[in-house]
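Work through this:
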Amino acid sequence: MVTAANDPSSRHPVEHIVQMRGRLDLMQLSRVFSADDYERTICIGTVTRGRPQMLSNLLKSYSRLNVPDRVRLHFIIIENNETASLGQAIEDFREQVPRSSVQYELETQLGIAFARNRALEAALASDGDLLTFADDDEIVAEDWLERLLAAREAQDFDIVASPVRFAPPPAAASRWNRMVWSGMDRMNRNSEAKSVRLLKRGDARRIKLATGSWMGNLEFFRRTGLRFDNSLGLAGGEDWQLWSDALKLGARTTWTPYAIASETVPVERLTLRYQYRRSRDHSSVLIERRKCKGSKTISLQMLVSILGRVWTLFYCILAAPLTRGSTLVRAASCLGSIVGLLRGRLGFVSPHYRTTSGS
């Protein structure tokens, strides 16, 4: 569990300039709108690296958001890179959202957890009330913010999340790529349907909340000091870990099927190899975390988990002719998770996010 803020003692000069520009935006906005004009501030957080076109698409969708009454939006964009490269894109976005403030900062320590923590700290420093996250390879629906807010307000939840659905495959996708997309979409929709069933049964606490479409109550993070786990480095899995840690701290969590985000899937991800690697790397993180907790039954749990995955693997392979090959995606995912569990048990954690896909 991580409850310590990032150490800001060493900052790149460009990073300092970018951060100061964000603070100036806040000061300028405060001269235009007084505190009495708004009930609260919602910070819209985005972490990005190496995807300028995808980020541009997300920002355009942000500019079309329906803004609830008496709400001020403060956009926080964290570039997780060695040098700042988004200056013009940020200036263009500022022109698209003249009634909102835009804060752009550089986080030079590579790793999603570092960047998400940077966004969280910026939101807290801005005296924001709520923080959202959407990924830089997504676009959000016009009512996305309204729907998240309505779900959170229903019972004053601390964290709420919602589905991320796959956008149609790109025009350049081959027939094989489209088959892989179909398998990914099938798995994703099955996962969404499971979340809907849990929600209807009143078991929303059991739904794992990812930050691809997410809203958090900043008061909860101020009070508990909870942060994303920087020790995960480039491995990922920081959002599910935060959800797990938040529950232990008494967080009230839920999920809504109505706030929709759509993920653009580049051709590079539409391969069985990528699905294998992604599952392998995430499973390595899972078993490593359990080892760190000193679980006495980890070997037995892993054995049972592997046996279940082996059964699913063979079932998916045998079912492939009947599903036009779409179950091969789940087979690749199962094989990757088996290898990942074994690698994690031996101490190997793969840096899945060392490179990014998409543009």
